[in-house]
TrEMBL record:
<dbReference type="InterPro" id="IPR009023">
    <property type="entry name" value="HMG_CoA_Rdtase_NAD(P)-bd_sf"/>
</dbReference>
<dbReference type="Pfam" id="PF00368">
    <property type="entry name" value="HMG-CoA_red"/>
</dbReference>
<keyword id="KW-0520">NAD</keyword>
<dbReference type="InterPro" id="IPR002202">
    <property type="entry name" value="HMG_CoA_Rdtase"/>
</dbReference>
<comment type="similarity">
    <text>Belongs to the HMG-CoA reductase family.</text>
</comment>
<dbReference type="GO" id="GO:0004420">
    <property type="term" value="F:hydroxymethylglutaryl-CoA reductase (NADPH) activity"/>
</dbReference>
<dbReference type="GO" id="GO:0015936">
    <property type="term" value="P:coenzyme A metabolic process"/>
</dbReference>
<dbReference type="GO" id="GO:0140643">
    <property type="term" value="F:hydroxymethylglutaryl-CoA reductase (NADH) activity"/>
</dbReference>
<keyword id="KW-0560">Oxidoreductase</keyword>
<comment type="pathway">
    <text>Metabolic intermediate metabolism; (R)-mevalonate degradation; (S)-3-hydroxy-3-methylglutaryl-CoA from (R)-mevalonate: step 1/1.</text>
</comment>
<dbReference type="InterPro" id="IPR004553">
    <property type="entry name" value="HMG_CoA_Rdtase_bac-typ"/>
</dbReference>
<protein>
    <recommendedName>
        <fullName>3-hydroxy-3-methylglutaryl coenzyme A reductase</fullName>
        <ecNumber>1.1.1.88</ecNumber>
    </recommendedName>
</protein>
<dbReference type="InterPro" id="IPR009029">
    <property type="entry name" value="HMG_CoA_Rdtase_sub-bd_dom_sf"/>
</dbReference>
<dbReference type="InterPro" id="IPR023074">
    <property type="entry name" value="HMG_CoA_Rdtase_cat_sf"/>
</dbReference>
Amino acid sequence: MTKINWAGFAKKNPKERLSQIKPLLSKESHHILENHVLLKQEIASQMVENTLGTFALPFSVVPEIEVNHKDYTVPFVTEEPSVIAACSFASKIIKRSGGFKAIVHNRQMIGQIALYEIKDTHSAIKAIEKHKKELLAIANSAHPSIVKRGGGASDIKTNLIEDETPLLVVHILIDTKEAMGANIVNTMTEALKPYLEALTNGKSLMAILSNYATEALVTANCAIDYRFLNRDKVKAKELAEKMVLASNFAKKDPYRASTHNKGIFNGIDAVCIATGNDWRAIEAGAHAYASRNGRYEGLTTWRLDEANKQLLGEITLPLPLATKGGSIGLNPSVLVAFDVLGNPDAKTLASIVASVGLAQNFAALRALVTEGIQEGHMKLHARSLALLAGSLPDEVAFVVDLLLKEKHMNLSTAEKILEKYRNNILE
Ligand code: NDP
């Protein structure tokens, strides 16, 4: 395994960082980063409609996230300051305590075919059960290549929704291997429509995958020794207790849970975007999962292990991530992201991403129950204002320092500070 010396990485400039992580990269990835090769206009305009150009975002890495005893360098694409620093800080502490342990419980997608105007739903359900094998064969013959890859449709279930117009919903479970599987699932469910209509004597309303991927759940855990939370034993224990309280707060109050989970997605979305994954699908599924108990709840749980003097963290969420398909092969930056990660398979990627979510949550809760996040955020806000005011890289630190001393920070103050600086009339 390639070992990188990460010392001073955060303090270097992008060129220096690139040379530091060079041993991790293939020649092609290094060329892409060194020469700022981006998604080509011709490709972009084939991907979606009405294209005018492409849109750039910062591409960063979080070093050394240890998952199941292996270190990963994790690519992040985000415009939000402090997300990467927070994840790096958390994963460093967690690595000292043995890293993350992650389990992929299953990796199947669910397709739904909703049927209505069925006269006898009881007989319809029986007919579906009786013809299960045949229905699975029809689904698999609609997308034979996924069967050749060792995947395909494996089970069929039914769910009757009693309503003014009852709906009989047929769920089909499909192993989509390395793909997220939206198109694979949709092709199979569409193919089943006419057969199910005939079998049930009903009409089909729609056929599409469900993003509530409850058959693609992933759990990541960590156990952090109190001693890594603070050098002072009393303060360390107090912090661990506050983390537990913060976790309970997010379980009981949806107003808090929403912000708690947003912090988790700061990291998860950043990796999904970097790896060309459909982050809307991942968010939709996870938010539905957060509501599975009839109330929107925080996705993580923190508790104490008093005997071993450890703070235990856990996250479980649906993560049907892909390493193939969709736009993954089209964007050169995505190629670099996979290269940096060591080209994991879909299940390993899901383990890494769940761990990122837990790390991000640890950092956010720790900051919230100690110094709060505003102090750090004001610095970052000052930085954004300095940049917006037009500061050059070597002027930014100076403008930020003075802005932080101002009572009211805004763009016009930043512009005035910069102007004074440039005119050398600062006292
Ligand atoms: P694709 O339609 O691209 O299908 C996967 C492709 O990957 C297939 O062409 C398959 O080839 C290829 N492939 C190569 N190796 C493998 C492997 N080992 N395992 C699996 N497939 C492999 O992608 P998806 O079906 O995953 O659909 C994802 C796209 O659908 C995303 O762009 C998403 O945004 C979009 N989408 C999402 C919806 C949602 O609700 N979430 C709804 C509609 C679209 P082969 O055919 O030879 O097997």
